[in-house]
Amino acid sequence: MALKTRYKPDLNFSSASMSDLVFLLLIFFILLSTMVSPNAIKLLLPNSNSRTMAKQNFTIYINAQYQYFVEQTMVDAPGLESAINRLAASNPEATIVLRIDRTVPVQYLVRVMDAVNTVNEQTGYKLKTILATAPNE
């Protein structure tokens, strides 16, 4: 007596759900990549041939409107020393990267360097500053 099974396995593969999943993942990664921005403050850095690389602990920005940003937080000129002092408390031998727009006068750079030197003198920290530049074309 030959018994036949009622349900036969379907050997066809349906890829409709797979393409939906790939499409959703693609949208997710596109949206995620637009949210991640390493330099949230838009600057045109000065050009240089120098290739010096250093461990970057903290970043200070000065944009084209002459506004100071210490790690993405806007501060005024008198508040630079206290903001630098707060950041340096966790790492007294940190390297501070200065990212300054190329249209900013040198006086604003000097003001930041004076604030770093004042913090070093008052606290005994050994903070170093370097200027970020873009490569020459």
Based on the model shown, name its key terms:
five-stranded mixed sheet; 137 residues; alpha/beta; Nucleotidyltransferase, domain 5
Q: Could you describe the 3D structure shown?
A:
By secondary structure, this protein is an alpha/beta fold. The chain has a domain at 47-135: 2-Layer Sandwich (Nucleotidyltransferase, domain 5). Helices cover 34% and strands 18% of the residues. It is built from three helices and seven strands; from the N terminus they run H-E-E-E-E-H-E-H-E-E. The protein has a five-stranded mixed beta sheet with strand order 4-3-2-5-6, with helices on one face. Strand 5 (95-100), helix 3 and strand 6 (128-131) form a beta-alpha-beta unit. Helix 2 packs across helix 3.
The share of residues in helices is 25-40%
Calculate the mean pLDDT score and round it.
81
The global form is elongated
Rg over C-alpha atoms, rounded to the nearest angstrom: 27 Å
User: In angstroms, what separates the terminal alpha carbons?
Assistant: 85 Å
**In order across it, which strands form the biggest sheet?**
4-3-2-5-6
Characterize the biggest β-sheet: 5 strands, mixed
CATH topology grouping of the domain at 47-135: Nucleotidyltransferase, domain 5
Query: How does CATH name the architecture of the domain at 47-135?
Result: 2-Layer Sandwich
SSE order, as H and E? HEEEEHEHEE
Give the beta-strand count. 7
Question: In CATH, what is the class of the domain at 47-135?
Answer: Alpha Beta
| Helical segment count | 3
Structural class by SSE content:
alpha/beta
Strand content: 15-25%
Low-confidence stretches: none
